[in-house]
Each structure stands twice: as C-alpha cells, then as structure tokens.
Amino acid sequence: MNKSAVLKIYIPILVCVLAVVVAIIIIKPFSKKPDTSQMPEGENNRGNTIGNNVNGGLAVLSGDWIYYVNKDDNYYIYKIRTDGTGKKKIISDESYNLNIIGDWIYYSNREDDFHLYRVKTDGTEREQINYDNTEKVNVIDDWIYYREYHDYYIYRISKDGTGKEQIISNECCDLNVVDRWIYYSVKDNEEDSGIYKICMDGTQKEKICDDISYSLNVIDNWIYYSNKSDNDILYKIMTDGTNRQQICNDSTNSVNVVDGWIYYNNLSDNWYIYKIHIDGTNREQVNSDKSYAINIVDDWIYYYIRIAERYYEILEKDELYRIRTDGTQREKVK
C-alpha cells in the first residue's frame, strides 16, 4: 500500500479522535458536580424535616429506613424499611426528638432527664452530648439547635458535645433552622411576644410579626403557623414580614407542611387530622381520631391518639398510630 493510500485511511480516524478529545475538554468543566462542601451552612444536612422537629420528632426517614419511637415498647427507637420489612430495635432508651445525620441518631433521652444523646444507626457507640433538658431539636450540619425545657431559651452545641452557646434569651415556643436563619416564636407571657428570626450565630435579630404563634413551619420563604392571637387559626406570612394571610377558619395545632399540603389537628373538629393545600383550597379530613404530634414520613402520618383524661397519664395511656396521607391504611405502630 502506497503512502497516499495510508494517509487516506488514517487521516479521517485522527480527525475523529481529535474531535472527541476537544469535546471532552470543553464539556467537562460544565458537567462538574457542585462542591457541596462550599454550600452555605444549613443547606447540606438536616436531621429531620421542619414539621417533624416541631412536633416531637417521633419518626424520621433515612435512606430506605424509617426510624421511629415505638410507644408499644417503652418509646425505644426502632427502624423498619419503607416496604414494611426488616423491623428491628436500635436501642432501649425512652426517646424523643429523633434526628439522623449520616449514620448517627440524635435523640432526647427521657430516662436521663431528656439529656441529648446520640447512637449509631446500628445501635452501637451510644454517647451523651449534653446535660440540658432538651426539646425542639434541629440537627443542621455540624450543630444541634434546641430549646432548654427549664428556661425555654434556645441554645446550640456541636455534634460532639463541645462549644455550647446560648442564642436566644427569650422564652420560646418553636424554632426552625432554615437557610442560615433561626425562626422562632416568643411565648405570650413575654412583653415582646411574636415571630422573630435571627442568624445562626445569634446576630441580626429581626421581628417578623406580633402574632403569638405555635407550630411554626418555614417552607419556601413562607411561615405557616397556628395563630394564638386569633383563636389558633391557621395563618401564613412571608419570612420578610409581608403578605400575612389567614388560610382557613379552623383552630389548629401540630402543623406539618409537606409537598404543598398543610396537615394539622383541627381543634374545631375533635382534634381530627385535616389537610389543606398551602393556597387554602382542597380542605379534607384525614382521620377520625383525637390526634396530636403529627409527623410525616414516606407518605405516612405518625401521630398520637389522645386517650388519657389527665395530663400526667399521657405517656402511659396515649397510643401511637400511623395512617397514609390519603386517609387509608390506619394502623397501630408497634
């Protein structure tokens, strides 16, 4: 084969190879995945959903597993696959306020005065984190934000138990940690009651509105809440304090906002669970139980049924159930 024939064969091949190399060089920078380590604090890892944290952290989804507080077995932590298989006890502590980051479960231990603990998802390496009576737990990235039961102030502590800081010195009801801000409501026995926000480091405190509020859910620049200043009716307001709106006429509690729907206990109708679209349309009754502490995980609503007639009997008598968000498959949680 002469030189001319060889060139006719190999030149087109070389052109194709060069074209592929050039394409890779050009495209690769645009296809590079974002560096999540540089995302703002509060964006990478959240231990549980906002609504679940507000309502006691009874259940949390991690991968294909639902971790939950098993009232039928002394409030110990269990897990079960989302398909209903593989049920297993994790640890024999009476637990609340579940949050999961990575392979660690964070929880308040009632058997030790609600001090904060953590344990691996396989039940090993149990550790105590603080010595406070810990409520309203929000685990965000490397920090744990919580309300202390005795003074109702908001604190934060690192996940390894170091660096405890007081963030807020008002008596607070709820807190949400969202996009570098802590949103919280101040109790009605305080002169400056209302809804506020403050930076995660305790700076730039701003008042959003004067409403005495419970069950805060901050979702997509809106705050949804039960407005005690107006008979616990469901309201929403933007995080900059504008566009305050009444959503419905029901008196509410245990608000939990998920996928465009607001789930709540309807105090106007025997504490049954209702849902309504975030724009105030399509109001529906979900169950017929006297309910509270709504947690939503993988299309399941976990909730307590109020059986006790006296407050001090609640932990012993009330039962944990779950039901699908469409109102089907009601069952006791065991």
CA radius of gyration:
25 Å
Query: Count of DSSP E strands?
Result: 27
Structural class: mainly beta
Mean pLDDT: 88
**Portion in beta strands:** over 45%
- The CA-CA distance between the termini, in Å, is 81 Å
Question: If helices are DSSP runs of H or I spanning 4 or more residues, what is the number of helices?
Answer: 3
Shape type: globular
Oligomeric grouping of the chains: single chain
Most strands sheet: 7 strands, antiparallel
Strand order within the widest sheet? 17-18-19-20-21-22-23
Low-confidence residue ranges: 5-44
**Helix amount:** 10-25%
Order of helices and strands, N to C?
Answer: HHEEEEEEEEEEEEEEEEEEEEEEEEEHEE
Characterise this structure.
By secondary structure, this protein is mostly beta strands. Helices cover 11% and strands 46% of the residues. It is built from 3 helices and 27 strands. A hairpin with a 6-residue loop joins strand 15 and strand 16. It starts with a helix and ends with a strand. About 12% of the residues have low confidence.
List keywords for this structure.
mainly beta; 3 helices; 334 residues; globular; four-stranded antiparallel beta sheet; seven-stranded antiparallel beta sheet
Topology:
Elements: H1 3-31, H2 50-54, E1 59-62, E2 65-70, E3 76-81, E4 88-91, E5 95-101, E6 104-109, E7 115-120, E8 127-128, E9 134-140, E10 143-148, E11 154-158, E12 165-168, E13 172-178, E14 181-186, E15 194-199, E16 206-209, E17 213-219, E18 222-227, E19 233-238, E20 245-258, E21 261-266, E22 272-277, E23 284-285, E24 291-297, E25 300-305, H3 314-317, E26 319-324, E27 331-332
